[in-house]
User: What shape does this take?
Amino acid sequence: MGLLDGKVAIITGAGGGIGRAEALLFAREGAKVVVNDVGGARDGTGGSDAMARKVVDEITAAGGVAVANFDSVATAAGAAGIVKTALDAFGRIDVLVNNAGILRDKTLLKLDEEQWDSVVAVHLKGTFLVTQAVVKQLVAQGGGGRIVNTTSVSGMLGNFGQSNYAAAKAGIYGFTRTAAIELQKHRITVNALAPVAKTRMTEDLPMFQAGMESLTPEHIAPAALFLGSELCGDRTGHVLAVTGSQVFAYKVVQSAGKFKDEGAAWTAQEIADHWDAITKV
Ligand code: NAI
Assistant: This one.
């Protein structure tokens, strides 16, 4: 008995890295998997069918069921193509993991418009487009289903040289919260994963050169499985983070704050004077 027996799962960007590990695990747990990947370079340039096909071959060789799709998540036509592949092959959809991503790191002063637009297009717009196309199908099927988005510590806390990526990933957080609220009535949970793992996206970071080999995509995939399976229950709108053997949650907190006399506005000077009390959590 697998946790995803009889389910159909779409995983975007599943031709390598974390998405590949998720696809292999989902298939082992009984899901029929759509392995989507444009097969480009880390910065999103180029493309080939080879990456997605290879993962489909791995799944099939292990006795699982999978089909490849090579559409870009960053266009509405691509999102429609991904849904069409799932329906043509398997007739329904149950789980979507929005995992596809690219990197174009530059400090803010050097970042150009193209580097901004391309990163936001794949991560943030791609998450919106594929989610919307899939949710329309989930609702047409009578409701129920699970969406797993992929955010990042960069989006939650910020990171040097990643204003484009961090903005896209923080946007995915806001999108996740709102979609979770809106889709509750259709019994669709929407959560996000914040992974850290050694992949081609991160392998040149100093932390991954210092022997942190335990930070693998295989450490991340079970958390995606949790959020994509019935084990997740009715939990929705959460950010589950995995870094190697550590699992934790990111939460936005609101401080208790401080009230002035009934109806009175705070002056800028008063905010400065009471900063610690206002911001204390
Ligand atoms: P990766 O580069 O191995 O995987 C990303 C995949 O997305 C690639 O196979 C790529 O071809 C595919 N892709 C890119 N643009 C696409 C498009 N338009 N349509 C369809 N597929 C496309 O990198 P990794 O590390 O596996 O990243 C997976 C996700 O996890 C990304 O969203 C990334 O931002 C996120 N993440 C990864 C972290 C890490 O430590 N590796 C940290 C935080 C977040």
The longest strand covers residues 188-196. The longest helix spans residues 113-140. The mean pLDDT is 96.
